[in-house]
Design brief:
The structure holds 2 protein chains of 2 kinds. Helices cover 0% and strands 55% of the residues of chain A. Chain A contains no helices and 11 strands. The radius of gyration of chain A is 13 Å and the shape is globular. Chain A starts with a strand and ends with a strand. Chain B is mainly β. Helices cover 0% and strands 51% of the residues of chain B. In chain B, strands 2, 5, 6, 10, 11 and 12 form a 6-stranded mixed sheet that branches. A 4-stranded antiparallel sheet of chain B has the order 3-9-8-7, with no helix packed on it. The chains are: A mainly beta, B mainly beta. At the A-B interface, strand 5, strand 9 and strand 10 of A face strand 5, strand 6 and strand 11 of B.
């Protein structure tokens, strides 16, 4: 099993540009979570999906952030337009119904200049 | 609401010292409790878990016991190694959809 796969690993973009982060969960996992990690705020849950349906997006900071899960094997987190304060590490995690614990991806380090 | 409080770091220890990282929680119902570890440049990895009161989770020499009476889940290890240097996160899962609520994390630095 390749684990949760995130791409890209690193992204540097200019303020105002659109950024798309991608995640492939573990096959058979039915829940998917997007987190943001910064020194100031720690780990913040942005949004999570269950069986591809968004359940709670109350953690999404602004309308500039959106997430989709078109099928069980793919999710995207989009920021449009990006701002310097969006700079952070973004993690995707998935878990099966039995909830033996989340499996996290390696993260995408986003830098907005 | 549900929340997790961890001791602030960094915790700095010499190799082979005893480790305790305190974690307390507030939750409605009966949460499951977890410890995750994050090594530099990596995602979080599940270290151990406990799903009911008095359960003890253990892995790689680390242990934590689910104490309902004190709402605690302290992480312990009898003899730390330099390779244990990382950030440790306590978390709870309560309610539906397996949503995890994390503490702020505690950085551990072990010196030879």
């Amino acid at each position: 099993d390749a684990g949760v796969i995130q791409s890209p690993r690193h992204e540097v973009t200019e303020m105002g540009q659109e950024v798309t982060l991608r995640c492939k969960p573990i096959s058979g996992h039915n829940s998917l979570f997007w987190y943001r990690q910064t020194m100031m705020r720690g780990l913040e849950l942005l949004i999570y999906f269950n069986n591809n349906v968004p359940i709670d997006d109350s953690g999404m900071p602004e309308d500039r952030f959106s997430a989709k899960m078109p099928n069980a094997s793919f999710s995207t987190l989009k920021i449009q337009p990006s701002e310097p304060r969006d700079s952070a590490v973004y993690f995707c995690a998935s878990t099966p119904v039995t909830h033996d614990g989340y499996t996290f991806g390696s993260g995408t380090r986003l830098t907005v200049v | 609401g549900n929340s997790v409080t961890q001791m602030e770091g960094p915790v700095t220890l010499s190799e082979e010292a005893f480790l305790t990282i305190n974690c307390t929680y507030t939750a409605t119902g009966y949460p499951s409790l977890f410890w995750y570890v994050q090594y530099p440049g990596e995602g979080l990895q599940l270290l151990l878990k406990a799903t009911k009161a008095d359960d003890k989770g253990s892995n790689k020499g680390f242990e934590a016991t689910y104490r309902k009476e004190t709402t605690s889940f302290h992480l312990e290890k009898g003899s730390v190694q330099v390779s244990d240097s990382a950030v440790y996160f306590c978390a709870l899962s309560a309610g539906g959809y397996n949503k995890l609520i994390f503490g702020a994390g505690t950085r551990l630095a072990v010196h030879p």
